[in-house]
Amino acid sequence: MTAFDLRALYPALLVAITGLAVLLAQAFTPRGGRAPSVGLSLAGLAAALVAALAVAARPGAAPSVGGSVTLDSLALFLHVLILGIGIVAVWLSPSYLGATGGARGEYYTLLLFSIVGMLGLVSCLELISLFVALEIMSVALYGLAGLHRDRLESQEAALKYFVTGAFSSAFFLYGVALLYGVSGSSSLARIQAALNASPEEPLAVLGAGLLLVGFGFKLAAVPFHMWTPDVYEGAPATVTAFMSAGVKAAAFGALLRVFSIALPGLTERWQPAVAVLALLTMVVGNLGALAQTNIKRMLAYSSVAHAGYMLTALVAARQPAAESILFYLVGYAAVNLGGFGGLAALARDGREPLSLGDVAGLGQRRPLLAGALTIFLVSLTGIPVTAGFVGKFYVFSAAVGAGHVFLAIVGVLMSVVSAYYYLRVVVAMYMHEPVGEDAWAPIGSGSALGLAVSAAVVLVLGVYPAPVLRFARLAANALR
Predict the structure, then answer these.
(1) How confident is the model at residue 1 (pLDDT cuts 50, 70, 90)?
(2) pLDDT tens readout for residues 149-160
(3) Which segments of 184-201 does DSSP mark as H helices, in order?
């Protein structure tokens, strides 16, 4: 079983089986009863995490399923990150769903199956399997975005996400077809060999461009970001938290693998395009966030801007680019889970805090929650002693090392601009008087745990990033 080693599929299989078990448990729970969805989901995700670490700990080469799916060091890093994101998302969900009336049986099943797609996305060694994983992730997320079926904004979010996702899938599939036509294979390694033999093939350049467009939609890179503000605003807050962290991690992992393994021979062609995307994404994301009064829309444009920061590193050589992006993804995931999770924790009677007036005086009413949100917003700004500062230092250093000093300068300037809209929320929490009565619900134990873990990750990585950097460096070796 060396050529067809199913160990690489163990984590995804465990999550998929858990998703089916959660769905069946919901179906067979008597009316008025409470299905053990949360416990089953956490158990399945923890089992998948243990399985991934156990497979990686065995000596020998990384397991591979017929050269299509692997569990190498890069996949292991992203498996740990994605499963961790899933666990925190499950912690954040029960109190929010109870407060907003969204406690439907399919929620946790869709969440788990989107994680199955993410795990596959970061593990695939050939483009057809990668496309299948992309669709598994996307279809589940379309359903999650429209979970509040009685709200027009939720219906709008699901429809816009579906339509733009269909376009991105079409671009991606056309790119796969062109690269297959050039190389005669969908294997990343065989595409690389074919392009090394004929690097000036125009169809290969077009295929790489179409793949970049497909990934650009998933990353919310400008000009493929138009869906992001509406979807982030209309989707349930816990789903937005999960999407902003998980989709970015999976899409960047797949992007690194495809462009580093299959398309290094076209680096001189796609790097300028990535540099332009990074520049536009940083500028448009930050300037768009400046104009927002809705906190979720502001964080949506912030998500666009952070995709630009990570794309800035992609113009560097493979090793420093991968290391810096992988480290950035960890801090970014913790910050977004905490930021959107903090909003979700305050939900009550179907309502979320969306405006600055909703969080005014939060420092007086909920000092611990306000302190956690401050940590997340300060990290997004990139202030020292937080994961955001260390992450930006490494991505901009990678760009400077590759000679793209202008991109790094623009990134630093845009980070300064972002301080205005991030710290505006902090000012509202601590320096504005509370509006009305304290109508927000008490924070549930699961939400408190998720926020505490997220805040701890942000602070620990800000002062002691070495262990995660070592893990990221080991993961980046898979791209050599």
Answers:
(1) very low
(2) 778 888 888 899
(3) 188-197
Q: Which DSSP symbol is given to 70?
A: E
- CA-CA distance, 266 to 201, in Å (whole number)? 10
DSSP summary character for residue 479: G
Residue type, 358: D
Q: What is the pLDDT of residue 83?
A: 96
Whether 247 contacts 78, CB under 8 Å? no
Instruction: State phi, psi for 354 to the nearest 5 degrees.
Output: -115, -20
Measuring CA to CA, how many Å separate 139 from each of 115, 152, 171, 390?
Answer: 11, 20, 17, 34
Q: 326-356 b/e with 16+ CB inside 10 Å = b?
A: bbbbbbbbbbbbbbbbbbbbbbbeeebbbeb
The reply to whether the predicted model has a pTM over 0.85 is: yes
Give 149's DSSP letter: T
The residue type at 70: T
Phi then psi for residue 187, to 5 deg, are -70, 135
Q: Which two tokens stand for residue 420?
A: 């205005």
CA distances from 193 to 181, 183, 198, 270, 453 (A): 14, 8, 9, 18, 44
Residues near 163 by beta carbon (within 8 Å), at least 6 away in sequence: none
* The residue count for the chain: 480
The residue with tokens 């125009």 is 202
Q: What's the angle, vertex CA 407, arms to CA 406 and CA 411, rounded to 5?
A: 115
| Res. 477: pLDDT tops 90 | no
Omega into 223 within 30° of 0, i.e. cis? yes
Q: What are the extents of the domains in the chain?
A: 6-479
- Which two three-digit tokens encode residue 311? 């794309």
**Integer Cα distance of 410 and 349 in angstroms:** 43
